[in-house]
């Protein structure tokens, strides 16, 4: 049985990580860590976890977990990866976004070149049952050769943009982005906050991939709303077009038109999400047990996706198409604040 732990249980997202263990057959949640003792004890009692720590390094050394979920602000991610590597933790499953700007992106690139720890980014939507079936249909050629992909998220690039980008990669697997042309607006999301999820309020990006597929990304208020009303976080969606038709997924439903046959349906996001989280964790256990079973949400794939976000920022600031891969300019967030504030 895989021994699992969580770093950072003070926020609501940690509950979703823990609840998914009702559906994880080969792992158990054995230990948790967070700085505030009151939050720690409350969480541990709710989920029956006996091993609690206010210092995650002590937890790594004493508990020796096989898999650690990291649920912290992006500013703390790299130091936790380094501590996991030092303690011999085999695997880390980290919340998105992986990074915020060029400096931490480049530091993570450098870290993973020699790291032994297996790192996966928590884009659980990839494993939602309905989206997984649509992804498989596209991989099997049901809509023919891909032509165009359109993805969007109601929140800014740091909060949900990487979900939308990962969806593009999921429906267009085995490819790499080669250029991006972007625009951004709005400075509210660049204000200092404890969560450190800094990003412009809105962005658009036209992304070209090495297999000739083009994609459009929209985040924030410029993203289409998929249901009447609702808060910004409920508007993630993706539509994929091919020679023979299209598939479309959003947080509440799906539709397809393939060879003239139309189908559609609805799903309950919360039910899909807990199953997706569990399946993502099981896939991490697969990779732990078999080095050839590389997790689709591995850090190399996540870094490739995040380079697109940075490319959008660079493109908007310089008013030019950015070829990928590229080395981002220093202090992109500071430059965005100065330009948009």
Task: Characterise this structure.
It contains ten helices and 15 strands. With 341 residues, the chain is an alpha/beta fold. It has two domains: 2-124 and 275-294, NAD(P)-binding Rossmann-like Domain (Rossmann fold), CATH 3.40.50.720; 126-268 and 303-336, 2-Layer Sandwich (Dihydrodipicolinate Reductase, domain 2). A nine-stranded mixed sheet has the order 14-13-12-11-7-10-9-8-15, with helices on one face. A six-stranded parallel sheet has the order 3-2-1-4-5-6, sandwiched between helices. Helix 4 links the parallel strand 4 (67-70) and strand 5. Helix 7 (157-171) packs across helix 9.
What number of domains? Answer: 2
Distance between the termini: 51 Å
Major beta sheet, strand line-up: 14-13-12-11-7-10-9-8-15
The fraction of residues assigned to DSSP E strands is 15-25%
Main sheet attributes: strand count, strand direction, barrel closure: 9 strands, mixed
Gyration radius from CA atoms, angstroms: 20 Å
Could you spell the SSE succession in H and E letters? EHEHEHEHEHEHEHEEEEEEEHHEH
CATH class of the largest domain: Alpha Beta
């Amino acid at each position: 049985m895989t021994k699992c732990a969580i770093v950072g249980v003070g926020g609501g997202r940690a509950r979703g990580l823990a609840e998914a263990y009702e559906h994880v057959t080969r792992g158990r949640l054995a230990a948790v860590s967070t700085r505030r003792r009151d939050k720690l004890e409350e969480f541990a009692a709710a989920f029956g976890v006996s091993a609690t720590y206010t210092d995650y390094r002590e937890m790594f050394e004493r508990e020796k977990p096989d898999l650690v979920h990291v649920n912290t602000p992006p500013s703390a991610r790299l130091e936790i990866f380094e501590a996991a590597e030092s303690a011999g933790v085999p695997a880390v499953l980290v919340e998105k976004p992986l990074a915020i700007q060029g400096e931490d992106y480049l530091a993570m690139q450098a870290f993973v070149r020699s790291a032994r720890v297996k790192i996966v980014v928590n884009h659980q939507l990839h494993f939602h049952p309905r989206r997984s079936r649509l992804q498989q249909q596209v991989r099997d050629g049901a809509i023919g050769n891909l032509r165009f992909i359109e993805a969007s998220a109601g929140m800014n690039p740091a909060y949900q943009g990487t979900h939308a980008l990962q969806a593009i990669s999921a429906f267009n697997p085995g490819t790499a982005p080669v250029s991006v042309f972007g625009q951004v607006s709005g400075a509210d999301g660049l204000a200092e906050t404890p969560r450190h999820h800094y990003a412009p309020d809105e962005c658009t990006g036209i992304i070209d991939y090495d297999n000739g597929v083009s994609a459009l990304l929209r985040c924030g208020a410029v993203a289409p709303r998929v249901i009447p009303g609702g808060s910004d976080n409920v508007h993630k969606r993706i539509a994929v077009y091919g020679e023979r038709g299209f598939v479309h997924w959003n947080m509440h439903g799906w539709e397809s038109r393939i060879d003239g046959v139309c189908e559609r349906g609805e799903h309950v996001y919360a039910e899909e999400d807990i199953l997706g989280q569990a399946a993502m964790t099981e896939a991490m256990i697969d990779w732990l047990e078999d080095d050839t079973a590389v997790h689709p949400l591995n850090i190399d794939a996540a870094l490739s996706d995040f380079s697109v976000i940075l490319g959008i920022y660079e493109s908007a600031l310089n008013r030019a198409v950015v070829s990928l891969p590229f080395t981002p300019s220093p202090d992109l967030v500071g430059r965005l604040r100065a330009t948009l504030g």
